[in-house]
């Protein structure tokens, strides 16, 4: 099998497994169920993944890869911190509501029991993203408020860390309410969430 | 058994079941496990709840009761919309990070398969909360921006609906990162999230 075909099969398995986990619950879905949905023999599935834990870990890991490739990498070269933050908000929303990988990225936020070593690896990647965002928030505030990290004119009432967690909550919560047929879609959600971050509800 | 004792037992069962569901996964936890953790006979447990679905539904329903009693009811009489919103943010954060009911409220956000009729009842209560918040955001904006629901000075860039979902995301996401020993605690988290909602990251 060519390398690409192997990669495609793995992604296809992850996507199908993610869909089943959401529809039926993680524990209630067996390796047999995943194999059957893919019209694979159980042996064919075990050829790719040794356990359901491994599939769950790879789904979450893949979700973090997607974030790296489609949110972080494209913004790294943007010199102006405010523009970098605006681009990050846009790209993150596009990943969250994009139909292509919604099943995969949703799995990041469900509290399924992973073996501790695998859980630590996912949590460490999540922490890297939080730290990137926290640093970016600090740069954005510093540039606009010119405070060189110190409190200026009584200001900086919102710490970079609180701002990072607030933004992550706004963005990662979208999957809880988003409907493809609803009135809030990418083209109005992106500017509204961006305005809220930069200027609050009275922006 | 006095009515109060029955109520206490039910809450004790819900709390214990919620803890087990989070530690081991919902599907992997059996009615036997719940009974054993409570030192109840299986018959004793079935006396209170007929099925695991019923327990899950009652946990979620109880979480919505808690929101009603400790977030919504206390703010209903606050005449000024801005003060009402500030109080709601404070009370909602206190419920989310309070140790007393964290196990219960977390269950609201996990995507466990509930029978459709029960799922609809929970979703309908969640929607009521979103609508309350959306209406409140509209009142707050209207009072400050004085636009009587119309666009004023090119403004109201953030719709009440987007603002409501953004705030819910910020608040309900807290359980994903909150640590009782971390630097962000109620006393600094509440003012920071409040400032961010009213004035953005440059507040």
Question: Could you explain how this protein is built, in words?
Answer:
The first copy, chain A, is mostly helical and 203 residues long. In chain A, 70% of the residues lie in helices and 0% in strands. The termini of chain A are far apart. In chain A, 30% of the residues are buried. The mean pLDDT of chain A is 89. The interface between A and B is large, with 53 and 53 residues.
- Give the oligomeric state of the chains in this entry, treating copies of one chain as homo and distinct chains as hetero: homodimer
Number of strands of chain A: 0
Structural class of chain A: mainly alpha
Measured distance between first and last alpha carbons of chain A: 55 Å
Secondary-structure topology with pairs:
Two copies of one chain form a homodimer.
Chain A: H1 3-24, H2 31-37, H3 42-48, H4 52-75, H5 81-97, H6 102-106, H7 116-145, H8 160-172, H9 174-177, H10 186-199
Helix pairs in contact in A: 1-4, 4-5, 4-7, 5-7, 5-10, 7-8
Task: Supply the key terms.
homodimer; 203 residues; mainly alpha
Provide a quick synopsis of the model.
Two copies of one chain form a homodimer. In chain A, 70% of the residues lie in helices and 0% in strands. With 203 residues, the first copy, chain A, is mostly helical.
